[in-house]
Specification:
By secondary structure, the chain is α+β, with helices and mostly antiparallel strands. It folds into three domains: 2-309, alpha-galactosidase from lactobacil brevis (Beta-galactosidase, Chain A, domain 5, Distorted Sandwich); 323-627, TIM Barrel, CATH 3.20.20; 630-751, Golgi alpha-mannosidase II (Immunoglobulin-like). It contains 14 helices and 39 strands. Helix 6 (444-460) packs parallel to helix 7 and helix 8 packs parallel to helix 9 (580-587). Alpha-D-galactopyranose binds next to loops.
Length: 755
């Protein structure tokens, strides 16, 4: 890791990555390179091609910029746009100084990645100044030891005499010399979030955004630029991810000169920030990852960086409890006896935490009322939250509670008392979503109220976990507390309010485990990770749909952040019935939970669930914190196969799962090459279910006799054979067991000592 600054040329290098820019003759910082590492001892200034092209304004569009602005002849998407007191928008940002800082400074009020020790990171702070307006821009570039990534954010300071309006302030721009990339995004909808989709870059503008007041189910604040044909192990890839949970844009512009500019940050569409003299504005940060070796390396960089340098606090490295959640088991319809009955069943199966979902407060028997009235419904729970917590404690279970603090129902006492606390334009009707309205978290008094309420709840009973939900997006975005000229600040102020609220609660209850949620995975983004160590990945608990959702999510986010539950069949979202084995095998790759009523399980399934939980606990370090590898993904080939694997840091232990969506008669021979093993080690391969480890329904039905796939793979295999030749999945002709649709295989690999 090194930052060198010589003769106006800056070179940041760490891991296998270099980031280089240089000041031109006027002192404007021009981008040179982001990608594979180059020697920090050479100069690359000669790569700046400051030529004037036909019908261009000087060299404005012939080279990249560190902070492109509008109005002086660069007509591409800018990083920074202002309106000065005189109504003009032109900026000319020139070098005004720099310093190199050990470690990485925090961003006040915003979630950010961090270095645990000062020698883990280096930060270059570059100061640029516009002489006419007095605007100063500080760009922070941080690099981390041994890691091929760069974290970037900006601070805009008004040092002039007049007020400025900040009309767009990106977290990062990235200039690339050619457009030969595919643009990959994590896109979808409710119940099918973060499917990985790729398209070839084309001339002009392309990208994704959210104007919803949340990152949303539709697109994740992330984009991937990968060389065409890049695979899990080959091809250059660049990731751009935003540490933010609100409205965002992530765009790429392919210019007619054959260059390409990406930018990511707060969506400028609804953004205007008034900056009085002496005031500052800090952008969220962006994390740019470079991989020379495909998607797999890119994901591993993001996964481990977000797990260790963004997730924060008590739960960051701790084993997460196996939970049972009441939602799909009972929805709104339960009594205390029901809950205790379910909890007894869950405890007997090995659960560690029981989560009471929606329906426990106010008069909430459906989704039409009571959000905002966070008092326990004593007709459902006569012993109150404390009574239920005690009962669960007696069963050896922690108590988790669902809450949706940002929302209010029109049918609620809170709404009656404080109608002005609700987001909306005075004089216009407010649109409802799921019968609810959104509280104005841009107002400090609303944040204080919510802090008081939830501090009270968390103090009133032994609650170890919160599921923090957010079940609609923001319409009629307007705060009664902001003057008309500042309404463009509303969305970001809302996010600052939310982060402040979460920060205060986490500080008051440092051992509280928070799982963020927004109709499933509608706010599964880096911005919430420092507060909520895990997120509910999707309301869709169908194992087959989850193959795409969890794999897409894993492009950026670590397994320790993904709530993954086994639910009842037929599945409530899709009506599909996958076997308990397959449901378990998918949910193992994340933070395992169950979303069903244990009292309704058959005896056979009860044994199966107990065995799953025991197996998961035994390998929990691997499943939650191991190195995750996608061996096959539903976005490849005909989409019928998927295979995942987790490997321990020392490469001595691994679990491999393979999935086949539709069964095929007389299937083609199929082998699965593994990755991440030590080629010289000898591994004991145990195809599961194996006696004593995982007693599945299939094994019981088959009276315990291993099938041909189990027999063929069981035994001692060297790491090199497992990687080069692989495991046999099918192709034994007549002896292939007919597994039906939605089938799965699990293999446990343990290095044999002494080899
Ligand atoms: C959202 C969540 C669900 C559940 C319901 C309760 O949809 O994603 O898991 O908590 O709310 O209303």
């Amino acid at each position: 890791m090194q930052i060198s600054c010589r003769d106006g040329e800056f070179h940041l290098s760490s891991g296998g990555m270099s980031y280089i820019f240089a000041l031109d003759g006027r002192g404007a910082p021009r981008h040179i390179h982001f990608g594979a590492a180059l020697s920090p001892d050479s100069s690359y200034r000669h790569l700046l091609r400051l030529v004037e092209r036909p019908f261009s304004i000087g060299s404005m569009e012939s080279a990249g910029w560190e902070c492109p602005t509008i109005g002086r002849g660069d007509f591409r998407i800018p990083a920074l746009e202002i309106e000065a007191a005189d109504g003009s928008g032109v900026l000319d940002l020139l070098y005004a100084g720099h310093r190199v800082i050990e470690g990485k400074p925090p961003i006040p009020g915003l979630p950010a990645t961090y270095a645990e020790t000062e020698d883990e990171a280096l930060t270059l702070e570059l100061c640029l100044r516009d002489a006419v307006s007095g605007l100063e821009l500080y760009i922070n570039y941080s690099i981390f030891e041994g890691t091929s990534l760069l974290v970037r954010s900006s601070r805009v300071c008004n040092r002039g005499r007049g007020a400025l309006s900040l009309n767009s302030a990106m977290s990062a721009v990235l200039e690339l010399p050619d457009p030969d990339y595919e643009l990959g995004t994590l896109s979808g909808a409710w119940a099918r979030e973060r499917h990985f989709v790729r398209r070839r870059l084309a001339p002009g503008l392309q990208g994704i955004s959210s104007r919803r007041g949340a990152s949303g189910h539709q697109h994740n604040p992330f984009l991937l630029l990968s060389r065409p044909g890049a695979t899990e192990t080959e091809g250059e890839c660049i990731g751009v991810s935003l540490v933010y949970s609100g409205c965002f844009t992530a765009e790429v512009e392919v210019h007619s000169h054959g260059t390409c500019r990406a930018r990511i940050g707060i969506d400028p569409a609804d953004f205007r920030w008034q900056l009085g003299p002496g005031q500052e504005f800090a952008t969220p940060e962006a994390v740019l990852v470079y991989s020379a070796r495909g998607l797999g390396e890119l994901s591993e960089t993001y996964n481990s960086f977000y797990r260790s340098n963004l997730a924060l606090g008590y739960w960051r490295d701790r084993h997460r409890p196996v939970l049972f959640n009441s939602w799909e088991a009972a929805y709104f319809d339960f009594t205390e006896n029901d809950l205790v009955g379910m909890a007894e069943g869950a405890a007997a199966l090995g659960a560690e935490l029981f989560v009471l979902d929606d329906g426990w407060f106010g008069l909430r028997d459906d989704d039409s009322s009571s959000l905002g009235d966070w008092a326990c419904n004593l007709s459902k729970l006569p012993g109150g939250l404390a009574g239920l917590a005690r009962a669960l404690g007696g069963l050896g279970l922690g108590f988790g509670l669902w809450v949706e603090p940002e929302m209010v129902s029109q049918k609620s006492q809170l709404f009656e008392a404080h109608p002005d606390w609700v987001i909306g334009v005075p004089g216009r009707p407010r649109s409802e979503g799921r019968n609810q309205l959104v509280l104005d978290l841009s107002r400090p008094e609303v944040v204080d109220h919510l802090y008081g309420v939830f501090h009270g709840i968390l103090s009133s009973a032994s609650i170890s976990y919160l599921k923090w939900d957010m079940n609609r997006h923001i319409s009629e975005a307007y705060s009664a507390a902001l003057p008309p000229g500042r309404q463009g600040e509303f969305f970001h102020r809302y996010m600052l309010g939310l982060y402040a609220l979460l920060g205060r609660l986490v500080e008051a209850f440092p051992e509280l485990l928070i799982e963020s949620c927004s109709g499933g995975g509608g706010r599964f983004d880096p911005g919430l990770l420092p507060f909520a160590s895990q997120a509910w990945t999707s309301d869709d608990s169908d194992a087959i749909e989850r193959l795409s959702i969890q794999a897409g999510t894993s492009l950026v986010y670590p397994l320790s952040s993904m709530g993954a539950h086994v639910s009842a069949v037929p599945n409530h979202q899709l009506g599909r019935s996958a076997s308990l084995d397959t449901r378990g095998a998918v949910a193992f790759f994340g933070v395992l939970g169950y979303e069903l009523d244990p009292r309704k399980l058959s005896e056979e399934d009860r044994r199966g669930v107990a065995a799953q939980i025991a197996f998961y606990k035994e390998h929990r370090q691997l499943f939650q914190f191991g190195r995750f590898l996608r061996l096959r993904s539903t976005w490849e080939g005909d989409g019928n196969e998927a295979a995942w694997m987790v490997v321990s840091e020392d490469r001595r232990e691994a679990v491999v799962a393979s999935f086949r969506i539709l069964g095929r008669p007389n299937p083609a021979s199929l082998r699965l090459g593994l990755r991440g093993l030590d080629p010289g080690l000898l591994y004991r391969v145990s195809p599961l279910p194996a006696e004593g480890s995982l007693s599945s329904a299939a094994l019981i039905a088959g009276a315990g006799s291993p099938d041909v796939v189990q027999r063929e793979n069981a035994g001692l295999r060297r790491g090199d054979e497992l990687e080069v030749i692989g495991l046999l999945l099918s192709g034994e002709g007549a002896f292939d067991p007919p597994a039906g649709d939605f089938s799965s295989r699990l293999f446990l690999l343990e290095a044999v000592f002494g080899h």
